[in-house]
Design goal:
By secondary structure, the chain is α+β, with helices and mostly antiparallel strands. The protein has one domain: 3-Layer(aba) Sandwich (NADH Oxidase), CATH 3.40.109. It is built from six helices and four strands. It has a four-stranded antiparallel sheet. It is globular and about 50 Å long. It starts with a helix and ends in a 21-residue tail after the last strand. Bound molecules: flavin mononucleotide. Flavin mononucleotide binds next to β3.
Length: 175
């Protein structure tokens, strides 16, 4: 099996992280892979925000937990030290698909480099909030962006779970 196919099959979501940041070169390589995802009509509707700042990481985690209805003691980022946020321009007809493909590229690139990750949801609600809009404004991000997802990144602090068996009716053939 090719190395690419092995990575696609073996990537798993990680839900317990060591506190150390990943290497900068790996972070840049993961981000670059994200920017090369296919997008509808090549419009490149998504943007990626890389958060390695602990204060902002903790603030986003608290916002996310609040959306979940959880208290401040819950960390929906599972202790991951950093994250990539994907948002996409709602003016592009395919923005959700575009942003989701970027997320896929990011998580598979991370797996290829031995970096653990997990898609964390609720980016939509996060960046629809006044606090989220303020964060975008502070970065000079103008426009009509919807949060697609967060990819938390780091190194696992415990072994990852095996993949669930694939459902038997996943695939249909017309031959
Ligand atoms: C759209 C989407 C949203 C997800 N949101 C969360 C989330 O908020 N929290 C979480 O722990 N995992 C989240 N996940 C990860 C899934 O739970 C995980 O991919 C799934 O259980 C399969 O496990 P695997 O990634 O190890 O194959 C999300 C995945 C996707 C694709």
């Amino acid at each position: 099996m090719s190395e690419t196919l092995k990575v696609l099959e073996s990537r798993r979501s990680c839900r317990a992280y060591k506190p150390e940041l990943i290497e900068e070169e790996k972070l840049q390589a993961i981000i670059k892979a994200g920017t090369y995802a296919a997008t509808g009509m090549g419009k490149q509707s998504p943007i990626i925000i890389a958060v390695t700042n602990k204060e902002m990481r903790d603030r986003l985690s608290a916002m996310n937990a609040k959306i979940m209805g959880r208290g401040e003691d819950f960390d929906p980022f599972y202790g991951a030290p950093e994250l990539l946020i994907v948002l996409a321009d709602k003016n592009a007809a395919t923005y959700i698909y575009d942003g989701s493909l970027v997320m896929g590229n990011l998580m598979n690139a991370a797996a290829d480099l031995g970096v653990d990750s997990c898609w964390i949801h609720r980016a939509k609600e996060e960046f629809e909030s006044e606090e989220g809009k303020e964060i975008l404004k502070s970065l000079g991000i103008k426009g009509d962006y919807e949060g697609i997802g967060h990819l938390v990144l780091g190194y696992a602090s415990e072994p990852l779970k095996d993949a669930a068996p694939r459902k038997s009716d996943y695939v249909y053939y017309i031959r």
